[in-house]
Design goal:
It contains 10 helices and 5 strands; from the N terminus they run H-E-H-E-H-H-H-H-E-E-H-H-H-E-H. By secondary structure, it is α/β, with parallel strands linked by helices. It has 2 domains: 12-39 and 115-211, 3-Layer(aba) Sandwich (Rossmann fold); 47-113, no CATH class. Strands 2-3-1-4-5 form a 5-stranded parallel beta sheet, with helices on both faces. Helix 4 runs antiparallel to helix 6. The two termini are 23 Å apart.
Length: 211
């Protein structure tokens, strides 16, 4: 007889990690999974919430990096901090030490609330961390580096040099593709990308049902 069914029998969804380089279109893809009814846990969204005014993580960031990364309204100067961590590896590691444990805690809480067969866990820096051992499958959203640079310059209004620094700070495209279980080429039209999401949704639903 199970003495504690509420814990041992708890539902554990099949977790598909969605990752990809910066400006590869991960949000478009994750939004389509969500539209199809798949729960999406996005570590970027969690990270943004953790650095809202009044949050302990923001206070720690200010202690580590100084008041110059906080604006007059007490909000994080994201572009300033982003430029800093892309140009300084030690700064990036310091920021990760502040945020990553908190993000993992929030992810674990969110997973326990999921009742569907599978979920999407968006982890942009999955290749740089092994902190999510419960991931069962990895989907990499892939585009050419030149496309990433063009999109990044348009999205963040940054220079070519800054865009190249951002790419250089991440794991290489080749390394990401090496550990992918599935690759979604997002270099074509939006329609092609969404059709591929529909195909993968069927695939993951079938796989999860067998677990």
């Amino acid at each position: 007889m199970n003495p504690n069914p509420s814990l041992e029998d708890k539902h554990h969804p099949y977790i598909v990690a969605l990752t990809g380089g910066i400006a590869s279109g991960k949000t478009l893809i994750s939004n389509e999974f969500a539209r199809l009814g798949v729960p999406v846990i996005d570590t970027d969204v969690i990270a943004h919430a953790l650095v809202e005014p009044g949050q302990p993580a923001l206070q720690e960031i200010e202690q580590v990096f100084g008041k110059h990364v906080i604006d007059k309204n007490g909000r994080l100067k994201r572009s300033k901090l982003r430029a800093l961590i892309f140009s300084d590896q030690n700064a990036r590691k310091k920021l990760e030490s502040v945020l990553h444990p908190r993000i993992r805690d929030e992810v674990n809480k969110a997973i326990t609330e999921i009742a569907t067969a599978y979920c999407i866990l968006v982890i942009p820096l999955l290749a740089e961390t092994d902190a999510y051992p419960n991931v069962k499958r990895i989907l990499v959203v892939d585009v050419e580096p030149e496309t990433q640079i063009t999109r990044l310059m348009a999205r963040d209004n940054c220079s070519l040099e800054q865009a190249k620094q951002a790419l250089a700070a991440q794991t290489s495209r080749e390394q990401r593709l090496k550990f992918a279980d599935d690759i979604l080429n997002n270099s074509g039209s939006m329609e092609q990308a969404l059709n591929e999401v529909a195909r993968l949704h069927e695939k993951y639903t079938t796989i999860a049902a067998k677990q």
